[in-house]
Amino acid sequence: MAEFARRMAFMQTTADVVRNLFDSMTDPETISFGGGAPAREALPVELVHQIASEVLTRDQRGAQALQYGNPTGIPELRQAVIDRLLAPKGLKAGLENVIIVAGGMESMNLVSQLFLDPGDVVLVESPTFVQSVQVFKLFEARCIACKTDNNGLVIEDVEAKIKQYSPKMVYVIPTFQNPSGRTFSLERRKALAELGSRYDITILEDDPYSEMRYSGEKLPPIKYFDQTGNTIFVNSFSKIFAPGARLGYTYAEPGIIRKLYEVKTATNSFTNVVTQILCAEFFNRGLYEPHLKLICDIHRQRRDVMMSCIQSMLPGETKFVYPDGGLFTWVELPEQVDTTVMLADAMAQRVAYVPGREFFVEGQPARNNCMRISFGAVTPDKIPVGMQRLAQVVHARL
Ligand SMILES: Cc1ncc(COP(=O)(O)O)c(C=O)c1O
Fold first, then answer.
1. Given this structure, which CATH class describes domain 15-44+290-397?
2. What's the distance, Cα to Cα, between the start and end of the chain in Å?
């Protein structure tokens, strides 16, 4: 077999972490707080079945669905993005600002293809979402972590690192972050948009969770404060429609969207038209807003059960993030507990989580006593069972 390209070695460590994450979701006996899947009960199975049976016929849109599509996506879905997802966030857009892509991850991939040369630096949060790091590394970028606190990225540290490393991009998940569940304050959002403009750096704003808000006040995205077009806003339909549909979108200046069109055609020509039509109908029939309420109700209950389990079952010194939405909380155990080592004990007790260390990259110290706990895919009756197992494993380590 011929040698793999150099970039495969470059991203290997991160690739192993991501593979383990996917694998932990497959054992049916294990209660997994590991993966980032939404609740099965929140998937719009019956709605999609109904839509498909009506529109995927010869005299409706069946032939269009199975035919070649346009690289920018079908206009109805782009318009739904503009009217129903961007406008409520205060983001003004026309069709020329939006391209439909294959899931949230494809935006990371296309934007990286467009902006990153080997050796370029991408600043990220500490901790951050490993799968995006994997993409940046695929393009042989160097990811450097900046300091964070409960209000998001520490702006002074970002600015210091901009001066030190001259990065090409800053990658952030400002709302209900994966893995920490934290949300950037309004001031930090504004300040980061301004840094992007002042230093002419791309701010890649990844926003798959903001619609899933269960408590607290809505905040405008970073893109809302962008005066220069330096912020690129990327989003996914995975949490508000269906991850299996593999749909997402990028919202940016027309000049960037035109370039993404070129990259998209060279990557996979266009996004799945069957699922685009189903998703556009889901919006255009007025089904999205009531379904989003259901999604939020289901996940709010799981969040509440999880929070009370963490408080009542884990050791008193445990610190944790109370997320106002999304799927994750970040748990910090007493210093002496190494969550990477402890995972084997947890798996033996049939409970899974993701060790915090996996989410740290160069630039900030890795934390060994943290873990990401995902509450989305476990039913409220099973959360206490899983957390009891986990608590036993933690107490045994102390
Ligand atoms: C922060 C973040 N970005 C992007 C994605 C990818 O979304 P998709 O499943 O639509 O590719 C996820 C999914 O978990 C995520 O947590």
1. alpha beta
2. 48
